[in-house]
Design a protein that fits this description.
11-stranded mixed sheet, Rossmann fold, GMP Synthetase, Chain A, domain 3
């Protein structure tokens, strides 16, 4: 909706000619054009400041859909031209108000000034028609205002990247460094040479390839689908649900960009070429992990992602355009990896590492590449591997963990291993990052700035900055004060067997407390016929199943004893280190022999 200020501006434009016609006080009437031209000068000129999208550039983007670097460069010049024009009109109106005879001032205010404005529109339109070979000059503008008025122009917009110097590093790969100019060149090339007809299933593991394709899809106003795995069954389901979608992998992007790199000519890229994206434009669909059932899709808008990235940076005490390189062990398709290894560096002006190190030695090697302060975004599983490896990890300024809670002893060990402070992030696909804590020092979670936590009848809701709707969380939280809470577990972890209640978290804690058990997890099948029988998977190389059962009998009511209890060599985890419902179901139902210990 239009704001009161905008209604007043429109009212002044309409009221001025009528008031001028009926009034004889030319000096007083001169205040109207002075105010109007001052307002217009400010409206145009302030969009020429750094990190602002020029007003005419925005007009072109909103009306025509996207802007090439050439159009962006031209529309910025036109914004300058209109700013100078309104400055000239302001000076002219001031002179007429102070020194001209009333009849002369009235002639200019009522006739000539409107002709000057119309002349500017006409001359610019003729030049644009010749220079860009457009079939019409004003019809798209008239058609747009007829259909949508000022609504789209008053909506917020954010730049594609927050970097101010295009020669700075955008991404680092083992074999190459990409500047921001390289990135924009690749994005614009792909935009011009790859026509996306539907949604994009982005499976690129190389973070640079992922980001180029993601940005190209945004410019073509297409949504990127980011599945939580690349299994054939998952992809088949997605292509059935989104019949117009197309899968892209690293090999596809490498082939397309190789053709571009073989061409010597490059586009003329400047800071003014950075595209601006409407805040309400849908850009991605991400999926929950499926740890408690079927993954759920969540659509994300550009403004939501940008706002959350900036809030996260604020919560982690990070400033824009700091000499920081982001390294992540998590996939770009996961909300945690997407939000922090893609959107965060894009918007905060940081560099990111294009690879996805997995083993401790890979992480150690990646940390030696950038000549920047490094933020490592990882998971408890990866970080524990680093702690156990006894390797030396240097050059790390911050370590961030998410996807599962860390216990205090492991958090302390991680800080000692990396010689850097460890911050833990609590979040979910539905919202993104919600809270942080220094796990080695504090068990409490601190809400991110301007987030609101609401608890009603044990149900927990979160409201983020700029969002009017409340998102229900799958976890149970206990509020400490307006800014802090503790995590109690998931709502769906409580089970009821034969009238007796217990939580899966409590069962897992008891199982892993047995000496000799390295890992373990309880599982409750969804089939109602099996609801009275729990199953469990356990990693315990030196214990027999009977020994484990004997220990459990000392701690559990017989109705909660697992049937069957399955020994495995490792728990079934996805690449994020999470044990999903689907993986457990496969192991318990099929009892895959490949995972059984000898």
């Amino acid at each position: 909706m239009l704001q009161l200020r905008q209604y007043l501006q429109i009212a002044l434009f309409l009221a001025y000619p009528i008031a001028t016609y009926f009034s004889t006080h030319a000096r007083l009437l001169g205040l109207f054009p002075l105010f109007i031209y001052t307002m217009l000068l400010w409206r145009f000129a302030r969009t020429l400041l750094p990190q602002q999208e020029p007003l005419v550039t925005r007009f072109a983007r909103v009306i025509y859909g996207d802007n090439t670097p050439e159009v962006t460069h031209y529309t910025r010049k036109v914004t300058w031209l209109w700013s100078v024009f309104f400055l000239a009109m302001l000076l002219e109106s001031t002179s007429l108000t102070l020194y001209a005879r009333p009849a002369t001032a009235s002639l200019f205010f009522n006739i000539f000034n409107y002709l000057f404005v119309a002349g500017m529109f006409l001359l610019e339109g003729i030049y644009r028609k010749i220079h860009f070979s457009q079939s019409d000059m004003f019809l798209p503008l008239i058609r747009f205002f007829w259909k949508q008025g000022m609504r789209r122009f008053t909506a917020a917009a954010w730049p594609l990247i927050g970097h101010t110097q295009l020669q700075t590093r955008f991404a680092i790969r083992q074999d190459r460094i990409f500047s921001c100019a390289d990135f924009l060149n690749d994005v614009f090339y792909l935009h011009e040479n790859l026509t996306l007809t539907g949604k994009v299933i982005n499976l690129c593991e190389d973070r640079y390839h992922f980001t180029v394709l993601f940005a190209c899809a945004i410019l073509q106003r297409k949504i990127s689908i980011l599945p939580n795995n690349a299994l054939p069954f998952t992809l088949q389901q997605l292509q059935t649900e989104f019949a117009d979608s197309h899968i892209f992998r690293d090999a596809d992007l490498a082939t397309l960009l190789t053709k571009k790199h073989n061409k010597p000519d490059k586009l003329k890229i400047s800071a003014n070429s950075i595209p601006w994206i409407d805040a309400d434009q849908a850009v991605a669909i991400l999926y929950t992990s499926g740890s408690t059932g079927k993954p759920v899709a969540w659509q994300k808008c550009w403004g939501q992602l940008v706002t959350h990235a900036k809030v996260t940076a604020n919560a982690l005490d990070l400033q824009k355009n700091m000499p920081i390189c982001v390294i992540a062990t998590v996939a770009s398709q996961h909300m945690y990896g997407f939000e922090h290894s893609i959107i965060l560096p894009m918007q905060m002006g940081y560099t990111f590492y294009a690879g996805k190190p997995f083993f401790a030695a890979d992480i150690q090697a990646a940390l030696t590449l950038p000549q920047h302060e490094i933020i490592l975004f990882s998971t408890p599983r990866h970080l524990k591997t680093c702690v156990d490896s006894q390797l030396i990890f240097s050059n790390t300024q911050y370590v961030i963990s998410a996807t599962a809670q860390l216990d205090k002893q492991l958090a302390i060990a991680i800080e000692e291993t990396f010689a850097a402070p460890l911050q833990e992030i609590y979040g979910c696909t539905e919202v993104g990052g919600i809270a942080t804590r220094r796990s080695a020092q504090d068990d409490r979670w601190k809400l991110m700035p301007d987030y609101q936590l609401m608890i009603a009848n044990e149900d927990c809701y979160i409201q983020t900055p700029g969002d009017h709707k409340k998102i229900k969380l799958a976890d149970k939280l206990a509020r400490i004060d307006h800014h802090h809470f503790t995590l109690l577990g998931r709502h769906d972890e409580n089970i009821n067997i034969a009238g007796k209640r217990i939580s899966l978290t409590d069962l897992n804690i008891k199982l892993t407390s047995i000496k000799g058990v390295e890992e373990g997890v309880f599982y409750l099948p969804e089939n109602s016929i099996e609801d009275t029988r729990l199953s469990a998977l356990v990693v315990a190389p030196n214990l027999s199943i009977q020994e484990i059962k004997c220990e459990l009998e000392k701690m559990l009511d017989p109705v909660f004893l697992p049937r069957p209890l399955i020994k495995v060599s490792q728990l079934p985890r996805n690449e994020m280190g999470k044990i999903t419902y689907a993986l457990l179901k496969n192991i318990v139902a099929l009892k895959k022999p490949a995972l059984f210990s000898s």
